[in-house]
Amino acid sequence: MTTPDSEIEPWGRVFKAPHTITTPVFLSDVGAALTGARRTTLALGCARSYGDVCLNGGGELVRMTALDRLIAADWDNGVVRAEAGLMLDALLCVAVPKGWFLPVTPGTKFVTLGGAVANDVHGKNHEHAGTIGCHVRRIGLARSSGEVVELSGNDNAELFRATIGGLGLTGVMLWVELSLKKITSVFVEVETLAISDLDHFFKLAEESVDWEHSVAWVDCLATGKGLGRGLFMRGRHSARGGLRMHGNPRLAVPFDAPPWLLNSATVSLFNLAYRHRPWTLGRRSVHYDPFFYPLDAVAGWNRLYGARGFFQHQCAVPKATAAGAVERLLRLTAEHRQGSFLVVLKLFGARKSPGLMSFPMEGATLALDLPNRGERTRRLLQAMTAAVLEAGGRVYPAKDAAMSADAFRAGYPDWKRLEALRDPKIMSDFWRRVAQ
Amino acid sequence: MTSDAARNIWILGGTSAIAQAYARRKAVQGCKILLIGHNEDHLKANAADLAARGGTAAIEALDLAGEVDRAAAVDKFIAQHGFPDEVLVAYGILGDQQRALTDLAHAADIIDVNYTSVALWLLALLARRDPAKALTLAVIGSVAGDRGRGSNFIYGSAKGGLDRFLEGLAHANAGTPLHVLRIKPGFVDTPMTAAMKKGGPLWATPDRIAADIDKAVAARAAVVYTPWFWRWIMLVIRLLPRFLFNRLKI
Description:
The complex is a heterodimer. Chain A has helices at residues 27-35, 88-95, 113-118, 126-129, 157-163, 198-207, 264-275, 288-292, 319-336, 375-390, 405-411, 415-421, 429-435, and strands spanning 2-8, 17-22, 43-44, 60-63, 70-74, 79-83, 100-101, 136-142, 148-151, 172-179, 181-182, 187-195, 213-218, 230-237, 251-252, 282-287, 298-299, 310-318, 343-348, 363-371, 394-395. Chain A is an alpha+beta fold. In chain A, the strands form 5 sheets. In chain A, strands 16-12-14-13-19-20-18-21 form an 8-stranded antiparallel beta sheet. In chain A, strands 5-6-10-8-9 form a 5-stranded antiparallel beta sheet. The radius of gyration of chain A is 21 Å and the shape is globular. By secondary structure, chain B is α/β, with parallel strands linked by helices. Chain B has one domain (4-245): NAD(P)-binding Rossmann-like Domain (Rossmann fold). Chain B contains 9 helices and 9 strands. In chain B, the strands form 2 sheets. Chain B has a 7-stranded parallel beta sheet with strand order 3-2-1-4-5-6-9, with helices on both faces. Chain B has a two-stranded parallel ribbon with strand order 7-8. Chain A binds chain B through residues 1-3, 6, 23, 25-28, 66, 69-73, 75, 80, 94, 98, and chain B through 15, 17, 20, 28, 41-42, 45-46, 48-49, 52-54, 191, 194-195, 197.
């Protein structure tokens, strides 16, 4: 079934674009959607990427979300093969009661499996588990030539490597075979510690190597000696508490917030309150849902940034330059007084993804949201990207809506290898922006 | 009555999105599922999904709306899979009202698929039933069947006719172990509605509908509007005086 002129709005809401959308219901329909596309096309999951990697403005999209079946599962060994439109949320609903969890999960469970692989997502356990691409065994890929190819580390290895983190450009992923992680409880033992400054963060992060999951929240409005203060959270899967499922979002943002809601005054109030929550510090046992997906509890939280939307800057910087680069980035945001609640800092480990274009590198990653205030915000983003490149780092395409072609090419020197393997019928607004 | 876990459920229209969402729920509860529909490959994909979730699913490929000997088909299914404890009718076509106004074959399709074939399948099944045994007939109708409206009265009349059929069937069997559930979904985000503009609070997911059906079957309800607010929307639409109703373009 084809729907003309459907506007797709990614999570950041800065870009919107009209598309002709085809929604295949069975895997056998995908080939026709791809070969029959009159213009270029692109697979679309939940549109939870922030910028334009999921857009193909004026062209076509293949909406994958009806393709949400399991194809086969080996629950003794924790291996599932599922259609690429299956949401992680739905996969958890099936796997958790059987004692299996996602090997790697991003900060929201409302993404498709195909989208997660196309962006080679990472999670709080990057030091231990790498990206999701490290756990992908096989991929079924439809190409516009009409063929369906099976990819793995051994078969069509170069195309396998280009497809993981390949932003959907190598074809339409039909299915993904993933190794899951064994759990005996849905609970996570969490310890929260106060961080006084950036040095303290790096020290705590180094000390936490035996904790599987770790992440820090940083008060981006702190300056001077307090730069980098915040909270450090580390967790490991518990052995106690059983296998109870997560529920649906409890709250929703029903309309766009007014533009004045998020300003430096409200953000500092929030940050102050968040940092001093008396109940946060210390050890507790929490369900995986609030630990991994705190923002999933509020459906449509992106609307808090108002109708103009927001940018997210997420960068990875190498270990050698990480401390200086993060300090510089935090100073830049503090100076511009444009930061927001969501500043996340964590270390990336050494485990390499098979993905050619994988974003993480051993070092640190910083992510922060910036309400869209037009040119002013773009200037800050540019300054931040320049600082990242100078440190030898790169910016995350899944979150980006602003980087230049030069910045992209400098961060991802292998982009030409992906371009060479790109399916000629597939294109995205992001790729047009940075690689054409 | 068979314990809930071991229920034998037949789904007519086993490749529909609501059917699959319902089958997933019932399969993981331990029910035995039979998916009946016209495309064997599609049925296989759905059955594999149920099996991977830990369920038991069989398939029967057959064009439910086609020219078939329904009595013989029912006998064959009973012999193969046992008499069901529950039947969910989940197939139907929305059709194109504008086209159907002049294309009589299309109009006939809309009426026959949504009404005639369903009524005949139910009659064929009931003829083989042991009246002492519990049986639930859960049939997906539509809010469109509640009052004839200009934009979709051909589809609406077929669903409305089916509603009267089921109402009468329930009346005839009041006080017996036969449970008839009339399911009336509003706007559901499924492939059947792919051409419509979606989004907003009136649209529901197939899984939401399936959850409501599951509850209504357990409660032995006679009618379920899903999501719940459609009961009140349709009450207003049914009660609107004609001079007001006729001014609405709905």
